[in-house]
Amino acid sequence: MNNKGTTYSIALTALIVALTGCNLFFGSVDIPAEAIIRILTGGEVEKESWSFIVWEARVPQALTALLCGAALAGSGLMLQTAFNNPLAGPSILGINSGASLGVALVMLAFGGTIATAGVTLSSFFSIVVGAFIGSMVVMGLILFFSTLIKSNIMLLITGIMIGYITSSAISLLNFFATAEGVHSYMIWGMGNFSGVSLEQLPYFAAFTLAGLVLAILLIKPLNAMLLGTRYAENLGVNIKRTRNLLLISTGILTAVTTAFCGPVSFIGLAVPHIARLMLGTSNHNSLLPVTLLAGSAVALLCNLICILPGESGIIPLNAVTPVLGAPVIIYVIINQRRIQYFN
Questions:
Q1: For an engineered disulfide with 266, which of 195, 255, 317, 321 has Cβ 3.0 to 4.6 Å away?
Q2: Residue whose C-alpha is closest to residue 253's, from 111, 128, 124
Q3: 341, 324, 323: which is closest to 332 by C-alpha?
Q4: Number of H helices, E strands in the chain
Q5: CA 56, 58, 60, 62: dihedral to nearest 10 degrees?
Q6: DSSP E strand stretches across the chain
Q7: How far apart are the C-alpha atoms of 266 and 76, rounded to whole Å?
Q8: What is the DSSP letter of 308?
Q9: Is the separation of the CB atoms in 162 and 142 below 8 Å?
């Protein structure tokens, strides 16, 4: 990592600490700062409900946002590099839609459980399995079509078409599902970082960190792929193995975040561009760490913005992320000739 990357990493780390503190101290329920400090340090407060809110809601929500932001941003960066396309991302290429279809099958068709060979998977675990299978199937289709279609624009359009097909299947499932199932799926689809409880957080963190570690291990082959597939092969990079590892990493990160937090939009698409614009380079030695940190910071900021004043609850996450992400993408499209990403 160069000096610029180190500087931005330190600055983003400080920003993440500050935003995490804001997520803990601010919420729809007004809790005095002194009480929150006592709760976090193991002390007692006058209202037991305050301890419940901090430990069961704000702490897991802040940590979920931190991990989810890094996961989505890392997935977006890997896909943009693999397809050599600045508009590639989990949502644009239909990977989010595939995960959503898997969740829809579990929630709407199977009533929230999966029973196979006498083994029943229930609750969030079955949703994670459905999301993982859905995202992996779509990602596999995209990688298969990438061997047949040479044009990046055509490949992008193919991903969008796959997204339309999965959306059509989801619409059919909604049409035939019960009103309760449709309502539950609709709430899930709005996106939020409050879907992970304190008990589920270790599992969510384990899967997410596994995907992120795999992404970090792919830094060297990703840098080689920036120069083209043939050049990467001449450098000794096994393209097939790299694509398979990319499939697994992106599938894990997309599936876990989509299952627990819903199909969060724009973070995976916009944050890698923010990191590139800050660093002025596509070298993944600096770009990937800064992208992960920037993703965490953006997710924590979005979660903070979602909190409404007073006790009105929170607004949907996907009502906030496009407001922050869309201007970045518009800027990239307008200035694409002056911005050199893949060199």
A1: 321
A2: 128
A3: 341
A4: 15, 2
A5: 180
A6: 113-116, 119-122
A7: 9
A8: P
A9: yes
Task: Report CA dihedral (29, 31, 36, 37) to the nearest 10 degrees.
Answer: 150
Q: Which amino acid is at 280?
A: G
Dihedral (CA of 178, 161, 127, 316) sign:
negative
Measuring CA to CA, which residue among 199, 224, 211 is closest to residue 295?
Answer: 211
Cα 268 to Cα 86, 211, 233, 238, 271: the distances in Å are: 11, 14, 28, 26, 6
pLDDT band at 329 (very low <50, low <70, confident <90, very high): confident
Kind and range of the H or E run holding 146:
helix 123-148
- Residue 29, Cβ density class (10 Å: 0-12 exposed, 13-18 middle, ≥19 buried): middle
Q: Residue 232 is which amino acid?
A: A
**In this structure, what token pair is assigned to residue 36?**
């929150």
Q: Among 11-20, 65-74, 279-288, whose mean pLDDT is lowest? A: 279-288
Instruction: Please give the structure tokens belonging to residue 291.
Output: 């992208």
Q: Which residue has the tokens 């979602």?
A: 306
pLDDT of residue 247: 79
Q: CA–CA separation, 285 vs 298, rounded Å?
A: 21
Residue 211, token pair as written in the block: 């995907």
Q: Using CA atoms, how far apart are residues 324 and 301, in angstroms rounded to an integer?
A: 10
DSSP calls for 69-119: HHHHHHHHHHHHHHTT-TT--TTTTTHHHHHHHHHHIIIIISTTEEEETTE
